[in-house]
Amino acid sequence: MARTPLTLAALATSAVAGLDVVAASRIGAAGGDFDTALLSTRDERWFVVRVPRTEAAESRQSADLLALGALTAGTRSRLPFEVTTPAGQTPVDGTRAVVYEFVGGSKTPVSSLTADLAASIGQAIAAIHSLPTSCVTEVGLPSLGPVHAHQTSGALVAKAIETGLLPAALRERWEGALADDRLWQYQPTVINGDLGADTVLSHAEQVVGVLDWHELRVADPARDLAWLFSGRRSELAETAIAAYLQARPAADRQIGARASFYAELEIASWLLHGTQTRSTDIVDDAVRMLHGLVDDVQSQLGNQLGPPTAPVLAVTDVEQLLDGIEKDRVEKDRVEKAS
Question: What is the pLDDT of residues 57-97, one digit of tens each?
């Protein structure tokens, strides 16, 4: 049974000495991974208290606390948005209730993006990726390179192919992305690892907060941009990428293509989840999404991720090209001598 806001408020007062709660309201739907309440105090401060309901949620909470501890005050000062701070915790029913300082702002669904907000998102993500990697590695959080990213993506594509439900056009597109070495030449950075509409908070067309840091690590920066390609307003995703590259000019120029690739692979993950759980509803939904993706990519120029390759010329075409170059050189020499 879900804990009531009043019960959660009582736990919060045990977790934080002197906390004087005057109101409590539920956040999120009952029955989720966490029991969560928003608390207001007599001194007009706001807090959030969360109690995990499953072992997976408890592990996620532990990882989040470790990550928030790695984001020291000095590190946070480099970020143009707020990051919550744990205020206290107390044991309850074999797990723990954790109280956090409240971070204001609204969720940021891709469907509601504007050009200004997309640019702010690009700048905010660039700030995360510009953090020193030592803030992550020194506390033992994962550090993953391009080989790992390529291998895990390849394994996911292979499993999707094995289902027999992957459209041929997507198989060709994804295998092409895996075979393109240029796509996988990047420098790993600090990443949040779980950015999305629910974790990026915005107000007045600006990013004001980022929640859920349990996937903090050093890895492919394109991971944090992938959620922007989950909708069909790709021009705003490109706006975010442009702002990102302006704020972080040292980034590789294939980051947008990899982000798009990761977004597409989320549908493959959904398909595999359906097959593993034997849910025909999920499988049918994933297949519908895959065919919708086929329609989208086939309406674009070409069917590949990454930079376009030059067309392969036949031998006769190469000879004609070289012959034309030679004729131009001879004509240039003749004109120079005549003058």
Answer: 999 999 999 999 999 999 999 999 999 999 999 999 999 99
DSSP 182: G
Positions in the chain short of pLDDT 70 = 232-233, 300-304, 306-339
CATH of 14-101, one of 3.40.50.12500, 3.30.365.10, 3.30.200.20, 3.60.15.10: 3.30.200.20
Is 239 exposed, middle or buried (CB count within 10 Å of its CB: 0-12, 13-18, 19+)? buried
Comparing CA positions, the residue from 233, 196, 189, 230 lying closest to residue 211 is 196
d(CA 187, CA 165) in angstroms, rounded, equals: 34
φ/ψ region of 264 (left if φ > 0, alpha if ψ in -120 to 50, else beta) reads alpha
Q: Are 10 and 51 in contact, with CB atoms under 8 Å apart?
A: no
**Quick check: helix, strand or coil at residue 219?**
strand
Q: What is the pTM of this model?
A: 0.87
Helix (H, G, I), strand (E, B) or coil at 53: coil
186, 223 contact by CB (below 8 A): no
d(CA 203, CA 206): 5
